[in-house]
Amino acid sequence: MTSRSKLAPRVLVPLFIGLVGFSNVARQPRFDTFRAVDVLQLIGTGMCFGAALIAVVIFFRTPRSSS
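RESULT FIELD:
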């Protein structure tokens, strides 16, 4: 169970960073006219969402301890 409990921050941190990054870009009035900085921020946001998704998959695929 300790390996599963250590995985929670690995899921929540990238997910939180991804949500903050996406909400920052989506709140701006020029959401439809992206600049290079916005594209890089969205790429980083997607990477954080991908890391969080991988961590969730690992969380559910790891065997539970019987103790």
